Amino acid sequence: MSNESPAAASSTREDVEVFLRKQISQRTNVAAGQITPATVLVDIGLQSIDAVLICGEIETHFEIELDPAIMFEFRTLDEVTSAVCKVIGDS
Predict the structure, then answer these.
(1) How high is the mean pLDDT of the chain?
(2) Contact 3/57 with Cβ under 8 angstroms?
(3) How distant, in Å, are the alpha carbons of 1, 3, 24, 33, 58 from that of 18?
(4) Dist CA 62 CA 59 (whole Å)
(5) Helical packing angle, 48-62 and 13-28, nearest 10°
(6) What are phi and psi of 40, to 5 degrees?
(7) Which domain holds residue 14?
(8) What is the CATH number of the domain that holds 60?
(9) Is 17 contained in some domain?
(10) Which helix (H) or strand (E) holds 24?
(11) Residue 71 within a domain
(12) What is the pLDDT of residue 15?
């Protein structure tokens, strides 16, 4: 039996990326369509407070626990998406 939350269990990598892109767009005022998997998040203005707020949104939406440092430990949208998917898979 899995401890995975229903939200996490039904989430695909695409779901995670779309969610992250929307959250990052809202915090940086960069259009979501301009944020690609290769976008370096600090280069578009992501600040540490933004990372904390986004991590809170990720935790609520996907029902997981996440260290806000993940937003800076992994530089690009693709890397952060992979890291969040790993946490979802491990939950």
Answers:
(1) 90
(2) no
(3) 28, 24, 10, 10, 12
(4) 6
(5) 140
(6) -85, 120
(7) 6-90
(8) 1.10.1200.10
(9) yes
(10) helix 13-28
(11) yes
(12) 95
The type of residue at 12 is: T
Q: E strands, the chain, where?
A: none
The radius of gyration of the chain's CA atoms, rounded to the nearest angstrom, is 12
Domains identified in the chain, total number? 1
- Report residue 86's pLDDT band, with 50, 70 and 90 as the boundaries: very high
CA distance 46 to 63: 23
What are the structure tokens assigned to 60, written together? 């609520």
The number of angstroms, rounded, from the C-alpha of 19 to the middle of its chain's C-alpha atoms is 7
Look up residue 89 and give its two tokens: 């898979």
Structure tokens at 2: 């899995």
Q: Which two tokens stand for residue 64?
A: 């997981």
Let me know if residue 1 belongs to a domain. no
Length of the chain: 91
Summarised one tens digit per residue, pLDDT across range 12-47 is 999 999 999 999 999 999 999 999 999 999 999 999
Query: Which is more confidently placed, 91 or 89?
Result: 89
